[in-house]
Design goal:
Elements (H helix, E strand, L loop, with lengths): L2 H12 L3 E4 L3 H9 L5 E3 L7 H11 L4 E6 H6 L2 H9 L4 E7 L2 E2 L5 E2 L8 H7 L4 E5 L2 H13 L4 E6 L13 H13 L1 H4 L3
The protein binds thiamine diphosphate and magnesium ion.
Length: about 190
């Protein structure tokens, strides 16, 4: 499975839900698949995608989906423990696991040599977990995650394809857009 195809599977089920996306190709491919007001693109904030999604999930009843990366999550494994402790029912973490720090030169990550992120999540008390490697299984798990309580932690094994053009993202605009999508224009502007 390629990340772009997996991203389209997630979008099939997202409705008006929020997506927080990992830096680099995850964000670029989400933007290319469907730029939407409810996409929160992280750029440069390596390791913080699921932490930001956790914070959002604790602040709303809406479903919040984190599209994270194996290398980034490995840099901040503590976020899995905190998700397991807080157990937000509306949080869905999908890890695009290409077993490498792709964007910086395809260096093999720990998942290439035995680290099993689904087992880490289970050991941290996250109740709903899965590992999938094709679109059909991802579709089934994302459908379940979007229609039942979590937190969910889905490891999606992917192969790298060629990179798409970098998405033209302005961090300030992203922040304003997502705030407005939660609060409405007046409150987001501070009135
Ligand atoms: C704190 C920090 N360290 C290092 C980097 C450089 N960096 C950018 S993307 C990346 C790899 C991310 O790996 P992963 O989350 O697995 O995503 P992939 O590129 O494989 O899709 C690295 C090391 C960074 N942006 N921030
Ligand atoms: Mg990776």
């Amino acid at each position: 499975m390629h990340r772009f195809d997996g991203t389209k599977v997630v979008l099939r089920h997202i409705g008006d839900g929020v997506i927080v996306s990992n830096l680099g190709p995850t964000t670029d491919e989400l933007w290319h698949a469907a730029h939407r007001n409810r996409n929160f693109y992280t750029y440069g904030a390596m390791g913080l995608c699921s932490s930001i999604a956790l914070g959002m999930a604790l602040s709303t009843r809406e479903k919040v989906v984190s599209l994270d990366g194996d290398g980034s999550l490995l840099m901040n494994l503590g976020t899995i423990a905190t998700i397991g402790r807080e157990k937000p029912r509306n949080l869905v973490v999908v890890v695009w696991d290409n077993e490498e720090w792709g964007q910086t030169g395809h260096q093999p990550s720990h998942t290439a040599t035995g680290t099993d992120l689904e087992q880490v999540a289970r050991a941290c008390g996250i109740p709903k977990t899965a590992t999938v490697s094709n679109e059909e299984d991802l579709d089934e798990m994302v459908r379940a995650a979007m229609t039942s309580d979590g937190p969910w932690f889905i490891v999606a094994k992917i192969q790298e394809a060629g990179y798409m053009a970098v998405a033209p993202i302005e961090p300030e605009v992203t922040l304003h857009r997502i705030r407005e999508s939660f609060l409405g224009p007046a409150q987001a502007a501070g009135h």
